[in-house]
Design brief:
This protein is of the alpha/beta class. The chain is built from five helices and five strands, in the order H-E-E-H-H-E-H-E-E-H. The longest helix is centred in the N-terminal third of the chain and has 26 residues. The structure holds zinc ion. The site of zinc ion has 6 residues, from helix 4.
Length: 174
């Protein structure tokens, strides 16, 4: 590693981040680890392992893990549960300045909830080629919604993908 005066340099990639971007990346990874802990909760409960947290002003105000099977509810996605918990905890449905961290690219339903809740930033891990709407199946960004939000992808994506692979492999192998 060379932390020379030219900026932050990493051996593992070509990225050369400014200190502010470096801190943002560290923060994103820290919160994504919390979302991964939620995904592990789903895994332990034999649910497809997906987790999410909502962060506002540097603290987690809502957490959620996929609970579709337990609740027999097609809307019980990690993001929906985390957003609902966050709104309950601050007593306001407006989650402006809130950041949603989710281990998997959100689906159409969850993207709708993100817009309705006025989440300002979405950070996700692995892509979802079957249901993802931030570029995988379709891309719903910049479609003239009256709420604009930033999307960052690929944060700790290997951890998220590995957990999903492990889950489906165990199902296949019985
Ligand atoms: Zn969803």
């Amino acid at each position: 590693m060379d932390y020379g005066s030219a900026g932050w340099r990493f051996e593992s990639s070509q990225a050369c981040l400014l200190p502010k971007e470096f801190m943002q990346k560290k923060d994103d990874e820290k919160w994504m680890r919390e979302a991964l802990r939620e995904a592990e909760n789903s895994f332990r409960n034999e649910e497809v392992p997906v987790g999410a947290v909502v962060v506002k002003d540097g603290i987690i105000i809502g957490r959620g893990c996929n609970r579709k099977e337990a609740l027999k509810d097609p809307t019980a996605h990690a993001e929906i549960i985390a957003i609902t918990a966050a709104a309950n905890s601050i007593g306001d449905w407006r989650l402006e300045d809130g950041i949603l961290y989710c281990t998997l690219e959100p689906c159409l339903m969850c993207a709708g909830a993100i817009i309705q809740a006025r989440i300002s930033r979405v950070v996700y891990g692995a892509r979802d080629e079957k249901f993802g709407v931030f570029g995988s199946v379709i891309d719903i960004r910049n479609k003239g919604w009256n709420w604009k939000f930033e999307v960052v992808s690929g944060v700790l994506k290997e951890d998220s993908a590995n957990l999903l692979k492990k889950f489906f492999k165990e199902r296949r192998d019985g």
